[in-house]
Amino acid sequence: MEKYGKAIAAVVGAILVASYAALGGDNHIDAEETVQIAIAAATAIGVYLVPLAPQYRWAKTAIAVVLAVLQALTTTVLGGLDAGEWIVLVLAALTAAGVTFAPAVSGNGIASKNPVAPAR
Length: 120
Hints:
transmembrane, Holin, membrane, transmembrane helix
């Protein structure tokens, strides 16, 4: 969990969005739900693939937040906003929050949390 926390949070969010699209409402995945699932999958893939660099420790979080905003725009623009779509928006926000607060360490050894300043 320490190494892949951000990716795991994004994958869990994608699974929840896909499950809700497939099982919620009419048990049929329409065009809007397909786009929602694609954005959730892109979030999970993007968070996993983006490495952590010392100067860009926020990159994984940025990917999750930008795609959560796209999820919100897609949901509201394509189909309007009804009670069921609020759940997708909440899941997108929770995914971004999960990625923000979850730990991660890239293959280059850079961790998502700021290093402790050396004692003087």
